[in-house]
């Protein structure tokens, strides 16, 4: 937010210096980013008029001008391209010292005497424009000191606002905070209703429901659209970062900066019939004021008229920008002013979707006072009538009362205020602070009942009121105390691994930790097919951050893509964080995700290069599982896969039969959509099952020797090793000390669609030495169980 210091002082008079004012703004949370002094050294610079301008006899680019100073004529040699007879411009007289250090003296330029200098805005330090002389209005009083005429010296102040302080996107909004901090008082603004002088009006219909609960407008006929914007208004706009365009446009911009309410002026004669506020139609087009034609969808809101049928033609993009077909021009005679209340969720992300930025959209995204439209139209009407004349019609205020939320009183307890701040603030000071901030305050037995103005969306609970007292009373006045009490060490449970162990294990295996935002955009999730059980944000910062993430993978894949775009072919990333699913309250699940691409191993001489595959990632998973000491409780299955995984190179991960995650290659269709290659592999699983740890138990060293029997079985290709392992262990129980898979074969000698697995059975009994008959019996039982459970056949 950029504004003129003098403009702010006009609303809240204060004796504080510019430095003190800037320091105060920063101290109360309105961080000052830049202060640019304007016109601090303009003694000797006056308003002058060029009476004649003749070509210099010795220089093509110079002119010899006769200039009226209001106290006689002087000769000035000038090289500005816009110097011409009749122009009113600043003149630095002999003896003046300009802000840049230039001392003005009488001089000869190519043999012609010059007694002063006609100045550009840049030379005067009031604007960066150096393209020509600063052109002043034709009625500017010649001979008047320029500083007096332009309201100088002044300064442009630019502040950085946090998203919750939307009320400070206006000079008056800032003025209330300054008044509270400097014990001042905001001068009341004259927004008294303008008496209508005609019956001219427009019919307005609201068809967007609660998204636009209020629309205020007024017709003003016989306006002089060619009226010149007053110097005081043009300078305030210029010092706030806006270029004056034309009076009717400047008025709406001026009211937006002063009050905080974006407005728009339509040429009434270019509107047909009723005005309708409605959702845009799919693929509806609209030509905007900036010259672009945009294609809209149903997420946008528009203002339309009745050309082609009621509500048929869109004439403005709601809350963002007006349309070019109905804009005001110098030929406009009749004006329709509008100021509406668009709720933030109806505007957020729409500008970004079109690749544009507007001051109106920026304000509506953060919230504008719903009570402001009426006052803004009244104020703008008075300015237009005073400067450009006209005949005002009645004020049109179309409202959906049930969709407007009024501030509710909040109880601020005196004891709670003292306990949170650590000091006691005098009752009179508390009342002064809230009164200066424009809040209604009522004393009760144990404190106060405070009602915030409708512009303060950030005041919702008692803690917000305490923050206001702390902010205005100044944080530096709050005492600092060293924490007391004994510190206790938390005892980590032995049945659970610490997350640090997972981080260290992955780092040891060549992965780097990434940290992404917990918010993500709907469009990203739609590409992944993750559209169920989402948790949308009530007031997102942008459309790209509108939903709580249901998975860690989309964010990690974006980080991987970012790295690969910067010539990092081999990427290994992991993230530990929470994912969210719809519920009451939303369900939060701690999760781990891994993404990897490129070669399986870093470039080296000892091993041939090969691309990463499914089994590399499964090896990383096995290493993490082994860390907890219970690998037998885990299994992977090639069924029930989500749509974002490759159906032939992925698996479902379970623990104790319950699905806890997935791993494998991305689906080729998704990889193509994300502009990734086929080598990207991912893993995501719930973190809590991974952190569960089996406590070690001491056991005696076996007294009796183990017996080994090797068998090879022929099984269908779709049978997984985990199914076979489960059948073998279920059959042999404690007699099986270890099961080892040492060969897999398919091809000649094995039926198509089947595979041969060779395994070693390590058999051992704690009470006796197993005989050959015992071992053979175990083998027969295993073969029988595998035949029944897995359609296995013993190979010879």
Produce a short descriptive summary:
It comes from Dyella nitratireducens. The protein contains 22 helices and 39 strands. It has 796 residues and is of the alpha+beta class.
Walk me through what this model shows.
It is a single chain. The protein folds into 6 domains: 2-35 and 156-174, Phenylalanyl-tRNA Synthetase, Chain B, domain 1 (2-Layer Sandwich), CATH 3.30.56.10; 45-152, Nucleic acid-binding proteins (OB fold (Dihydrolipoamide Acetyltransferase, E2P)); 204-403, Phenylalanyl-trna Synthetase, Chain B, domain 3 (Phenylalanyl-tRNA Synthetase, Chain B, domain 3, 3-Layer(bba) Sandwich); 410-473, Phenylalanyl-tRNA Synthetase, Chain B, domain 1; 499-691, BirA Bifunctional Protein, domain 2, CATH 3.30.930.10; 707-794, Alpha-Beta Plaits (2-Layer Sandwich). It has 796 residues and is an alpha+beta fold. The protein has 22 helices and 39 strands.
Helix content: 25-40%
Q: So, the CATH homologous superfamily of the largest domain?
A: Phenylalanyl-trna Synthetase, Chain B, domain 3
Q: Describe the strand arrangement of the main beta sheet, using strand numbers.
A: 26-30-31-35-34-33-32
Number of helices: 22
Largest sheet: 7 strands, mixed
How many structural units, i.e. domains? 6
Q: Please, what is the average pLDDT?
A: 91
CATH class of the largest domain: Alpha Beta
* Low-confidence blocks of residues: none
Please indicate the percent range of residues in DSSP E strands (runs of 2 or more). Answer: 25-35%
Would you count the extended β strands for me? 39
Distance between the termini: 84 Å
**According to CATH, what is the topology of the largest domain?**
Phenylalanyl-tRNA Synthetase, Chain B, domain 3
CATH architecture of the largest domain: 3-Layer(bba) Sandwich
- Which class best fits the helix and strand makeup? alpha+beta
Catalytic activity: tRNA(Phe) + L-phenylalanine + ATP = L-phenylalanyl-tRNA(Phe) + AMP + diphosphate + H(+)
Family: Belongs to the phenylalanyl-tRNA synthetase beta subunit family. Type 1 subfamily.
GO molecular function: ligase activity
Enzyme class: ligase
